[in-house]
Structure formats: structure tokens, C-alpha cells
């Protein structure tokens, strides 16, 4: 019952936020995030630990400012789920700028894996793409089944085929071979299974090898993309890069290292927008102490 009441208020709030002007919603989110960063919390501690590990040469004051800016973007992104999940297609379409190095919707290019990363605006970019072209997406299960159903339903509202991350590999392969691109993100610590330790900002990070294995099995090209928050409360920019040449290379560890190196380059361009609230270094190589 408690979960159902919580879901009712969540949906009501998101619908209300969808009705507000985008800039109002974004400004409220930024201010609320800055306020919440002042309150000691487990998530703030995770952010501070991640920034200390990844930017050891920066001053404590600089990392504090970066952490506050990040918290503002994270809370803003939660509020912006309103327009992403309940706003009309036209409103979302107007908020996203597209820059693509490849021709989109070209089924003759063969199977395509769109490799995303957990920047705060990833949801907006994925949903914008689904308005334009057929696509499938891997999703992770949530601890709250009602919230998971809500997220799955709203993310699929423009026709996205939702595939559980721990579901059938065959389903993902069928989707790719049918000509429908598959969107996924592999930059989180999902545990030691099907993962290797490779550097991320010179810190050993437990990194999934699923991207290179799925690409090898399907013959798919791997096309990275990022979605960034534009300044001046103008919306977002979806940037789609060229396919990674020679990927996969036949060495899963080398592929994981290359993926992390590409991600690190993007993070350096907009460090406040990467999801530092996640415990990216949750699992440690044998013999190393926990960091959180």
C-alpha cells in the first residue's frame, strides 16, 4: 500500500512538472540540488569519494564546487523526468539539438548498438531518438517493482522495445538482426560476473564486457552517443559519434579499456554532468580495500 501511495504522488508530481515551462522546472531542480548538497548524506559521500579518486590533483575547494554543481544537475534531471515521461512528443522534440556523424534510420548499415553513458541527460536523448526512429533499449531492474513498471512504460511510450538487462541474450540478438538498433549503457559496476578491471581515471574499475561480446555475436557496429545539458536552460544536445573502428577487437579487456578511455574523454568535457552519485568503484580487485 505504501508503495502504491508513493507511486501516486510520484506520477502526480511528474505530470505537474510536465505542465510547467521547461526553464522553470530546470531552475527549481538546480536550486534544490544545490540546497540538498549542503546536507550530509550517503549520496553526497559517494560523490565526494568518486571525485577525490578521479581528480586527485584538484583542490578540495574545486572538488566541492564540482560536487555541488553535479548534485544540482542530478536533482534537476529527476524533475525533468516530468517532461521526458509525460510531455508531448513536440515539446521534447523542441528541446533537443541533434548532431550525428552517421546517417540515422539507415537499416542498410547493418545491426547497430548505440553505446550510451550515464550523463544526467541520457534519458532525454534516448527518448528523443525513439520519437524519430524505431529502437530497443536495455533496462536494469529496480528494487521497487511499481516504479520499475512506471519507468518501463513511460520510456516505451514512443515505441521503444524494452529488454531487461538480465534477460535473454537471444532477444537482444533477434532485435539487432531484425534491423532495430539497440541502446545500452555499460559504464556502471554491475558486479564481477562478465566484467574485467580496467582503468577509469587511473582507478581500476569493474567494467562490463557485454558490449564487445554482443557486438561480436551479432556483427553489429558500436556507435557511441552522449546527451548533454545545454547552457541557458535551452534543453539538451544529443551527439552521435562515428562507429568505433575495429571494435570489437577480439580481446574483451582491450575493448573495455577502449570504452573507458572514450568515456573519460567525454567526462572531462562536462564533469559536472556525469553520474558521480553511482558507486562506480563498488567492487575492488582482490586485495584492495573498499573505497566507500
TrEMBL record:
<dbReference type="InterPro" id="IPR004960">
    <property type="entry name" value="LipA_acyltrans"/>
</dbReference>
<dbReference type="Pfam" id="PF03279">
    <property type="entry name" value="Lip_A_acyltrans"/>
</dbReference>
<dbReference type="GO" id="GO:0016746">
    <property type="term" value="F:acyltransferase activity"/>
</dbReference>
<keyword id="KW-0808">Transferase</keyword>
<dbReference type="GO" id="GO:0009247">
    <property type="term" value="P:glycolipid biosynthetic process"/>
</dbReference>
<keyword id="KW-1003">Cell membrane</keyword>
<keyword id="KW-0012">Acyltransferase</keyword>
<dbReference type="GO" id="GO:0005886">
    <property type="term" value="C:plasma membrane"/>
</dbReference>
<protein>
    <submittedName>
        <fullName>Lipid A biosynthesis lauroyl acyltransferase</fullName>
        <ecNumber>2.3.1.-</ecNumber>
    </submittedName>
</protein>
<keyword id="KW-0997">Cell inner membrane</keyword>
<keyword id="KW-0472">Membrane</keyword>
Amino acid at each position: 500500500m505504501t508503495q502504491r501511495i508513493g507511486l501516486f504522488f510520484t506520477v502526480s508530481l511528474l505530470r505537474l512538472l510536465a505542465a510547467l515551462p521547461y526553464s522553470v522546472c530546470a531552475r527549481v531542480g538546480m536550486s534544490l540540488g544545490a540546497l540538498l548538497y549542503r546536507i550530509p548524506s550517503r549520496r553526497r559521500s559517494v560523490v565526494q569519494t568518486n571525485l577525490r579518486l578521479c581528480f586527485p590533483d584538484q583542490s578540495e575547494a574545486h572538488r566541492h564546487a564540482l560536487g555541488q554543481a553535479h548534485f544540482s544537475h542530478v536533482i534537476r534531471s529527476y524533475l525533468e523526468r516530468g517532461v521526458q515521461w509525460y510531455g508531448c512528443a513536440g515539446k521534447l522534440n523542441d528541446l533537443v539539438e541533434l548532431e550525428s556523424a552517421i546517417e540515422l534510420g539507415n537499416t542498410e548499415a547493418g545491426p547497430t548498438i548505440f553505446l550510451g553513458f550515464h550523463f544526467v541527460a541520457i534519458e532525454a536523448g534516448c527518448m528523443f531518438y525513439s520519437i524519430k526512429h524505431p529502437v530497443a533499449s536495455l533496462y536494469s531492474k529496480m528494487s521497487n517493482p511499481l516504479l520499475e513498471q512506471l519507468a518501463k512504460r513511460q520510456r516505451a511510450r514512443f515505441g521503444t522495445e524494452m529488454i531487461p538487462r538480465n534477460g535473454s541474450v537471444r532477444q537482444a540478438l533477434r532485435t539487432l538482426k531484425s534491423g532495430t538498433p539497440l541502446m545500452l549503457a555499460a559504464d556502471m559496476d554491475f558486479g564481477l560476473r562478465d566484467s574485467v578491471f580496467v582503468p577509469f581515471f587511473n582507478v581500476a574499475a569493474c567494467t562490463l564486457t557485454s558490449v564487445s561480446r554482443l557486438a561480436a555475436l551479432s556483427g553489429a557496429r558500436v556507435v557511441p552517443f552522449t546527451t548533454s545539458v545545454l547552457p541557458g536552460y535551452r534543453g539538451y544536445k544529443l551527439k552521435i559519434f562515428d562507429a568505433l573502428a575495429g571494435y570489437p577487437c577480439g580481446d574483451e579487456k582491450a575493448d573495455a579499456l577502449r570504452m573507458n578511455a572514450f568515456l573519460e574523454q567525454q567526462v572531462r568535457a562536462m564533469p559536472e554532468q556525469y553520474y558521480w552519485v553511482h558507486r562506480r568503484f563498488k567492487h575492488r580487485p582482490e586485495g584492495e580495500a573498499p573505497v566507500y
